[in-house]
Amino acid sequence: MFEMKTWATGAAMLACTGALVACGSGNTAPGAAAGTGTPSTATTVTGTTAGTVAGTAPATPALTSPPKARPTPAGAATPVLSGTREVTIVRVQASEGGLALDGRLVEADDDSGRQLFVPTPLGGDTYLIKAYSRVNNHPAADEPVCWQVHNPNNTQSLTIEGALCDLNNPAQRFTIVPNGEESYAISNNSAYLQHFPQQRPDPRRTRRCTPAKHVPAHRQRPRAPPRWRLTTPNQWQPLFSAQKIRRG
């Protein structure tokens, strides 16, 4: 599960919890210029009542059956899933940081990578998740990169990497459904997004392999960053959720 957070408008744009700070163009997605593929802000169309012709009596309205209620598209009542909001995605239980698309999907506690996401509806509960950089007057910051499932074709779990957006690519079509209050579950083809922290080494094996002398810090092997993976439903535990996008 993950938490999505909304961005505030005005001067205090796109502030989020922890060290996950990014600036943008307010609570709407980047401007929908031609060729950018970015969503535009939705507008409300209001209707008007036709008046009567002068000198004539208003016609008596015919008795008609009430119009059938149209089904509400998934995410329509949720601004964070409307495709017009930039959001951050963090773990519900995370104390700081959030998701960033930096080549692949990672958890970051700084400003690295693309940390602004726009879940763009494709129909039903299916979304294309676009990733944007902070506004830094660089043209590349306005061009989105989309989440895409990467299959290593071995025993390892699926991972998520960045790719050119293609709404017809099944690897980029994600299902986002509510999973608790203001939280969401993200999946692709029944594989759910879950955080896998770096495994701790076996203490017994560590004692056997660690040399007696002290190893300087600059020569120690760095730990691999935590990975975000897609797992099968029976391996998924509801420990994380797509947190609501909340106003700053």
TrEMBL record:
Does the UniProt entry include the keyword Signal?
A: yes
Q: Which residues form the signal peptide?
A: 1-21
Q: Kindly state which keywords UniProt assigns to this record, in alphabetical order.
A: Signal
Region of interest: Disordered:
51-79, 197-228
CDD domains assigned: beta-trefoil_Ricin-like
Per the record's keyword annotation, is DNA damage included, yes or no? no
Composition skew (Basic residues), residue ranges? 205-226
Name assigned to this protein: Ricin B lectin domain-containing protein
Ranges of Low complexity compositional bias?
A: 51-67
